[in-house]
């Protein structure tokens, strides 16, 4: 009998469709064999299938235990009402492939039950997976290295995160708090990110006001935000002070070099006059 959405599906409802599917493939099928929901054999080939009305951790435990006796382990669950394009479906498939477990879904319809094998148990190539996700790996490394301190609590959600990008914007905010309206070129000279022009233009946080072409000022919301992160403000104000000291040292060095050059020229002229008198 077909099940409607209002009715409860039992594991036993999944058994007959899967049984009949495997029999049609030429397998000899039995239910509840040594703790396995379904076992199917064809010659020396053994398939074990665990039936569950929903995808859960207990199902994975059972399937992994069955891998002790055969490589051909599948889980069978009702076809999801939300279809196969949801995040939950993709995550389920990713985990099953990682565990080298096959996936079967059963649609209990009025006309005929439908069994679909979405993928078979295959060896998971971990290195291939890492190569395919190298951009994500690089992004994690870059983001981790780009943060100046520990401003986020792991496990928290629905909170404003201090990302490397947000820190770059905060550096710009601190420069403007000290020097007022500035251009991207002036800011980059002070050591802000190479992304400074884009950060100002895109203005994702609403912190910047375009005064005129190439000149930006601060919105009050930027100062208000930084009140909640005094350690961040202190950090970037410290970087600005370091830049100022480096600038002052460079200017002093340049002035000293200029003075030395002028002194050398003066000494050269005196020597020239002395040579003429001699």
Could you explain how this protein is built, in words?
With 278 residues, the chain is an alpha/beta fold. The protein folds into two domains: 116 residues, Trna Endonuclease, Chain: A, domain 1 (3-Layer(aba) Sandwich); 118 residues, Arc Repressor Mutant, subunit A, CATH 1.10.10. It is 50% helix and 17% strand. The chain has ten helices and eight strands. It has a six-stranded mixed β-sheet, sandwiched between helices. It has a two-stranded antiparallel sheet with strand order 7-8. β2 and β3 form a beta hairpin. α6 crosses α10. The protein is elongated and about 120 Å long. The protein starts with 10 loop residues before the first helix and ends with a helix.
How are the secondary structure elements laid out?
Elements (H helix, E strand, L loop, with lengths): L10 H14 L3 E6 L2 E7 L2 E7 L5 H10 L5 E7 L8 H12 L3 E6 L6 E6 L6 H7 L1 H13 L17 H16 L4 H6 L6 H7 L5 E5 L2 E4 L1 H7 L3 H48 L1
Parallel strand pairs: 3-4, 4-5
Antiparallel strand pairs: 1-2, 2-3, 5-6, 7-8
Number of helices: 10
Reading off the top of the CATH hierarchy, the class of the largest domain is best stated as: Mainly Alpha
CA-based shape: elongated
How would you sum up the major sheet?
A: 6 strands, mixed
| Number of domain units | 2
**pLDDT averaged residue by residue:** 89
Q: What is the β-strand count? A: 8
Poorly predicted runs are none
And the CATH topology of the largest domain?
Arc Repressor Mutant, subunit A
| Beta-strand fraction estimate | 15-25%
Main-sheet strand order equals: 1-2-3-4-5-6
Distance between the termini: 125 Å
Structural class: alpha/beta
CATH architecture annotation name of the largest domain = Orthogonal Bundle
Helix coverage percent of residues?
40-55%
């Amino acid at each position: 009998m077909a099940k409607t959405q209002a009715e409860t599906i039992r594991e036993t409802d999944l058994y007959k469709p899967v049984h009949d599917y495997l029999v049609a493939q030429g397998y000899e099928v039995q239910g509840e064999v040594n703790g396995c929901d379904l076992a199917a054999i064809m010659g020396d080939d053994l398939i074990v299938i665990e039936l569950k009305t929903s995808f859960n951790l207990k199902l994975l435990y059972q399937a992994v235990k069955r891998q002790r006796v055969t490589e051909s382990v599948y889980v069978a669950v009702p076809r999801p009402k939300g279809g196969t394009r949801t995040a939950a479906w993709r995550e389920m498939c990713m985990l099953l492939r990682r565990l080298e477990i096959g996936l079967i879904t059963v649609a209990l319809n009025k006309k005929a039950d439908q069994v679909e094998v979405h993928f078979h148990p295959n060896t998971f190539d971990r290195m291939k997976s890492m190569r395919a996700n190298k951009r994500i790996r690089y992004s994690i490394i870059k983001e981790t290295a780009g943060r100046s301190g520990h401003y986020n609590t792991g496990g928290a959600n629905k909170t404003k995160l201090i990302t490397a990008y947000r820190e770059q914007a905060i550096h710009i905010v601190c420069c403007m708090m000290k020097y007022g309206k500035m251009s991207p070129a002036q800011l980059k000279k002070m050591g802000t990110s190479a992304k400074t022009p884009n950060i100002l233009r895109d203005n994702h946080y609403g912190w910047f006001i375009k005064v005129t072409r190439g000149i930006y000022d601060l919105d009050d919301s930027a100062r208000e935000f930084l009140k909640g992160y005094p350690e961040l403000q202190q950090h970037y104000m410290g970087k600005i002070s370091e830049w100022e000291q480096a600038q002052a040292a460079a200017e002093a060095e340049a002035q000293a070099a200029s003075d030395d050059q002028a002194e050398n020229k003066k000494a050269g002229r005196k020597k020239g006059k002395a040579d003429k008198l001699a």
